[in-house]
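hey all, quick one before standup. I had two proteins in the batch that finished overnight and I want to keep them in one place so we stop losing track of which output belongs to which input. First protein below, input sequence then structure tokens straight from the run.
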Amino acid sequence: QAYLSYSNIAALTHLARKPGWDITKTLDNVKIWTHEEGAVLSFKVEMQVKVPSHVAFSLLSDFSLRQRWDRHFLTCKVLQAVSEEEKIYHVTSAPMTGHQPRDFVILVSQRQPCRPQEPYTVAVRSVTLRAVPPSPEFCRSEILCAGFQIHSNGSSSCTVCYFHQVTSGVMPYLAANLTGSSKSIEDTALECIKFLE
């Protein structure tokens, strides 16, 4: 378990530091970047938020609040509180046209910065839990690496970066988006800002 949570944080930190991100869209307080490497597509959504970084961190690290701003989350319940910094959740998401509804079993690891210039981190990855086997009504999907880094911009604002490494399981949700025919990433980012502020 210690290894899983360490690798969860490390994978997100590694993804965030990768060179070669291309900016695809800029709005007033949202920027969307993509990164392609072989068959793996990652995206980063950068949001400017007018709340202190510790407030954004406490709201974003509690995934039971996620449905308030992310319409892709239908349900989200805690399966296991591994420690104060790690929780395992079961998430179900709304079905896309022509697709079965999906579910995920995810480990959410949160870390406060050790040094002032470091970000707050909330890392997410899929895990296997014997107690929650795949069920026939859902298509069990996997999150390789996702999460938030929250950088302080002073006492009353912060930059929230959301990262997601995309697998084929999540692709139907994003394909329409990255081609520009759907605004779901932007809309979700704007809802997230509204929720945090």
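OK second protein, same deal, sequence then tokens:
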Amino acid sequence: DKEVRAIFLRLFAQLFQGYRSCLQLIRIHAEPVIHFHKAAFLGQRGLIENDFLTKVLNGMAFAGFVSERGPPFRACDLFDELVAFEVERIKAEEGNPPKMIKHVRELAEQLFKNENPNPHIAFQKVPRPTEGSHLRVHILPFPRINECRVQELLQEGLARSQGAPPATRGDKKCVVPAGPPVGMFMCS
């Protein structure tokens, strides 16, 4: 699964290399608007006549991509690193399948680590009920809840949460690297 995702990550990194150089930040409105200059992107790559890429750039998914990844100051991820720093590596691996496969496996490992930051934590599996368990008569009734104890626990929790610092996500925002300009590479 992760290797297939890594292949698509590489594909989209190759497809959108240099997209950041074609972003325009318009600050006329109260909220800044990010515009992608499609003609410049296609023209610099010499792909104005490419029907597939034109349809990709005109799609709703790409518009969402630009609005999500367009801001110059946000949390960076693996895709940003690929687009900005791995351009030459991806280009050099085009004629060498073993190197390409090695890179795909490295990316898959990074994807796995991103999704499972604590590999030592084991997930407990809940066993399936045995056959006929629903027919058993000796099931104990659910115990009654002590309302006073529930209120005490709520008050304790509120007291602890008021003194604790607000929870924040671990994503550090930074300036997104632009990578090389579009004109540096030509796609076939």
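Flagging for whoever picks this up: The mean pLDDT is 81. Helices lie at 2-15, 38-45, 51-58, 60-69, 78-85, 87-92, 97-115, 147-163.
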